[in-house]
Amino acid sequence: MRNLFDISSPIAPRRRRLAPALLVVALSGAVLAACGGGGDDVDETQPTTTAAVGTTATTPVSAVVPTTTSATSAPPTTVAETTTTGAEPETTTTVEPESTVPTEADATEAEAEAEAEATVAAASASSASTDTSGYWFSAVAISADLAARMTPSSWREGCPVGLEDLRYVTVAHWGFDGGVHQGELVVNADTVGALEDIFRQLYAAGYPITQMRLIDDFGGDDDASIDADNTSAFNCRSATGSSSWSNHAYGRAIDINPLINPYVFEGGGTSHAASETYLDRSNVRPGMIVEGDAVVAAFDSHGWDWGGRWSSPVDRQHFSSSGG
Length: 324
Known about the structure:
This protein has 324 residues and is an alpha+beta fold. 33% of the residues lie in helices and 11% in strands. The strands form 3 sheets. Strands 1-2-3 form a 3-stranded antiparallel sheet, covered by helices on one side. The protein has a 3-stranded antiparallel sheet with strand order 4-8-6, covered by helices on one side. A two-stranded antiparallel sheet has the order 5-7.
């Protein structure tokens, strides 16, 4: 092939005119290749003059590959913008980073919410005012052994009810030590259903009871039971200051924390010295029963009468299913 730039060639004049033009084309292709093929202003759908320069246009195109490759390690937003270079801005799809890449702040907030929920759950589980899962109540007929225990201290021939009409109850209750204890009572069979729910309400309220033992453990002596602040029910005896049978003799009355909730005479006194500090009902202390509290509400829900509402005497410890 003849050298196009040989000035001795017959076509030298034509070659001298073409040489500058070819040099400009070659240089233009190199510049465009170095700039990545012409930039965002190039309409990729239309052919350009650089595309006609075979080897010169092909080589620079491969030079943009490292830029595209490095972008793939960035978040999805960067990749989307890189691969849609040259498209109209409004058609570019942008993926919000927070929807695909959780941040450290997101994780911290989630942990805080979980911790708060756990704290609330723990507080609810430890609250005696809402949890009755540890409550139990049982009522059975009077056995021969129990009848022997009760005779003649709390029951004997001539009492207004027979042993067959009574039931032996064991029930869970809270103590002043914050623990759950088993109490025992003898009651009339017709009060069992109401008492099961009443003591459940007292348990749910966290109301403390000093102790709950059969009055037979005190020889049937009501005063001795009161001095021990013992909660009791059945006792075949007459009503205080009367020759008539007490509702306790029928198993339809119960005295709760009797030392803390004293029987008050007309003059405002009490027969138990240890109860005097509890005559002031404005200073409400644990175990005391006052109008509107959980104990009164529980007995009210089953229509029981409360001696704390009597005008005189006032018997704050006393609840009865039949009044009096």
